[in-house]
Amino acid sequence: MAARVVARVTSQPPTLGAGRLVCVDGPAGSGKTTLAAALADLVPDAQVVHCDEMLQGWRGLPGLAESVERLVTPMVSGGAGAWRRWDWAADDWAEWHSVAPGGLLVLEGVGSWSPAIAPAVGCLAWVEADSDLRLARGMARDGEAMRPQWLQWRLDEDELFARLGTRGRADVVVTTDE
Length: 178
What we know:
The protein is α/β, with parallel strands linked by helices.
């Protein structure tokens, strides 16, 4: 599937100056990080930004689109982008990261795509899996103590995806049910 995404984005004209943008979006626990890693393996100069590092905590999903737009906007004209990391342990914003122009930028995470950056997206890959499987993956990764956060997060992402119609705008749909 990663090869299909790479073929799709490279068949499109560059949108970030000389570079290209892939958004790997979909609900938590669906396998977005795995697809993003496969894309990076196929494209040696790919830069992957995990959007969960750009969220202001568990309730930060509404502000993510603005952070992503701030990163992408200067890159459209060939400049460097920048994003600020959220330190989950300290519950506060941390250091800034620069993203060099050119090559392939992969934005991975729930809410990585939004209408504000749609003209710059060469390929929107939607990754999905059965709801129970996604929750089980999340509990295996984060621990049972995080269940309340996951349950609220699922409501938040459902609202976001319904409002934006993200899945319906996808160029590629990947299902990772096991």
